[in-house]
């Protein structure tokens, strides 16, 4: 009896110790993974980007083709990332894959660009859309105060940061809930459009493929707008170490979510054109609201709320995924070590999440968001193309490396070539923003050689830096992982 009691106490002690060990838990199953991708992809883009796609493609038919091709291209990229995510089991997404295939410098530059301007710009844009859709209905038909929109945007960002600092489970449950809200919003737009189409309302599709106003230099801008709306298919790869059975879950979640999003996006755009002429769509700053005022007069006031919640979901997905890239970069020695630590009770990468907060708030207050989106897109797609090129090089150099999921070679090559083509064409169509993007990214080269390749900071600076890191660690109650999760 005594022996049994002793064994039971030892077992309870071991279980307790396992629960108290500081490390990232595998808590993301298939449904949260699908919700994570759909919830991050479907943000403000589908409610705003149709205007940019139509403006740069020149006709209704070509804009629908661009939407469908952007979906196919995103699916190709997502399948490449499914192979990368099952071949390299670390979290970190782009950063990890560049590190494993092309080396530390490209990986560091990706990390540098992500936190210098890509992530703050994208998060600021989405949070501003959230603030606009929350505030503007209260001031119609007058213009809403800019300061109030920014204040509400900051409150939205603060809520998302708080959720992601509090717990991984809460963040994933929030994402699942907001994803169902997004799907409801899209269905609410699609159903009236399909009914109107069935009644023969097809006049806006007549002569849909006029190419008179189409110019080659505007094609990449049409694709950038479409691809921005599809952006987010790679975020699940940022949290690989927290996915349950990643070899099965990652490919399955990616395929299910991207097929769903592509079908929904094309149908939503068809619905828009049943109720609005191309000229009216180009004049609208909030396409979904204009559509609702015509097709859903009794429920028109609901659409801004649903769009705001959709933006909040995209913001939550970004804040859930991106800090994991910083977390892994710090773990590899490419960022200060404090950012590779997690909260001892919450098991969340608290310092990495908190770093994004002031960067996004500063960019929100500054307000120069829309130009940032253009050159953020260039940097993002350039590094994605580099990552898939690295995958092809790694395949050639290490053919025996375990690859639980292997994408067909033709898909990987097609995606890589198209990405480089779009990026190259943007050098011609928008050299100013592209040049600024290149310049900002390349500022990371001297930083890499001074702080990573050869640590050249003066001894006094190092002591101050180490002291500050130690005090931050105590204040935030964070520690290094005690269990290897990859």
Short account of what is shown:
This protein is mainly α and 486 residues long.
Structural overview:
- This protein has 486 residues and is an all-alpha fold.
- The protein has a single domain (25-479), classed as Amino acid/polyamine transporter I (Up-down Bundle), CATH 1.20.1740.10.
- Helix content is 73%, strand content 1%.
- It has a two-stranded antiparallel ribbon.
- Helix 8 packs across helix 13 and helix 15 (370-397) packs across helix 17.
- It is globular and about 70 Å long.
- The protein starts with a helix and ends in a 7-residue tail after the last strand.
- Mean pLDDT is 83; it is low at 12-16.
Write the layout of secondary structure elements.
Elements: H1 2-20, H2 30-41, H3 45-57, H4 60-87, H5 94-101, H6 104-135, H7 146-166, H8 168-198, H9 219-230, H10 246-275, H11 278-283, H12 287-295, H13 302-331, E1 342-343, H14 350-366, H15 370-397, H16 409-429, H17 431-442, H18 444-453, H19 459-476, E2 478-479
Antiparallel strand pairs: 1-2
């Amino acid at each position: 009896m005594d022996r049994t009691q002793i064994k039971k106490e030892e077992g309870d002690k071991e279980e307790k110790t396992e629960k108290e060990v500081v490390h990232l838990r595998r808590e993301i199953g298939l449904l949260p993974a699908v919700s994570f991708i759909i919830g991050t992809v479907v943000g403000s883009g589908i409610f705003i980007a149709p205007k940019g796609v139509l403006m740069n493609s020149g006709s209704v038919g070509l804009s629908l083709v661009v939407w469908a091709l952007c979906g196919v291209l995103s699916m190709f990229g997502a399948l490449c990332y499914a192979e990368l995510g099952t071949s390299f089991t670390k979290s970190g997404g782009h950063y990890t894959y560049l590190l494993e295939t092309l080396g530390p410098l490209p990986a560091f530059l990706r990390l540098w660009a992500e936190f210098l301007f890509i992530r703050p710009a994208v998060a600021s844009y989405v949070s501003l859309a959230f603030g606009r859709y929350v505030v503007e209905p209260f001031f119609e038909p007058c213009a809403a105060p800019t300061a109030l929109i920014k204040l509400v945007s900051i409150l939205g960002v603060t809520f998302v940061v708080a959720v992601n600092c509090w717990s991984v489970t809460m963040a994933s449950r929030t994402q699942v809930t907001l994803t169902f809200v997004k799907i409801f919003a899209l269905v609410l737009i699609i159903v009236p459009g399909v009914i109107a189409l069935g009644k023969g309302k097809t006049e806006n599709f007549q002569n849909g493929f006029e190419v008179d106003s189409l110019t080659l230099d505007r094609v990449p801008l049409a694709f950038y707008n479409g691809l921005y709306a599809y952006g987010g298919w790679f975020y699940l790869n940022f949290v690989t170490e927290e996915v349950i059975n990643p070899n099965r879950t990652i490919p399955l979640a990616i395929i299910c979510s991207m097929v769903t999003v592509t079908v929904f996006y094309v149908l939503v755009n068809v619905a828009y054109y049943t109720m609005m002429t191309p000229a009216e769509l180009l004049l609208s700053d909030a396409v979904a609201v204009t559509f609702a005022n015509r097709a859903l007069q009794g429920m028109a006031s609901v659409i801004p709320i649903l769009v705001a919640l959709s933006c909040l979901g995209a913001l939550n997905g970004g804040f859930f995924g991106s800090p994991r890239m910083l977390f892994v970069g710090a773990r590899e020695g490419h960022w200060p070590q404090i950012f590779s630590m997690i909260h001892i009770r919450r098991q969340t990468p608290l310092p990495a999440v908190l770093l994004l907060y002031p960067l996004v708030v500063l960019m929100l207050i500054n307000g120069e968001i829309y130009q940032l989106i253009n050159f953020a897109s260039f940097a993002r797609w350039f590094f994605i193309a580099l990552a898939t090129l690295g995958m092809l090089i790694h395949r050639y150099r290490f053919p025996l490396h375990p690859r639980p999921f292997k994408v067909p070679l033709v898909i990987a090559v097609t995606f890589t070539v198209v990405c480089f083509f779009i990026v190259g064409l943007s050098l011609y169509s928008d050299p100013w923003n592209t040049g600024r993007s290149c310049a900002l990214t390349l500022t990371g080269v001297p930083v890499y050689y001074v702080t990573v390749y050869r640590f050249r900071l003066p001894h006094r600076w190092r002591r101050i830096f180490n002291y500050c890191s130690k005090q931050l660690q105590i204040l935030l109650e964070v520690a290094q992982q005690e269990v290897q999760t990859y």
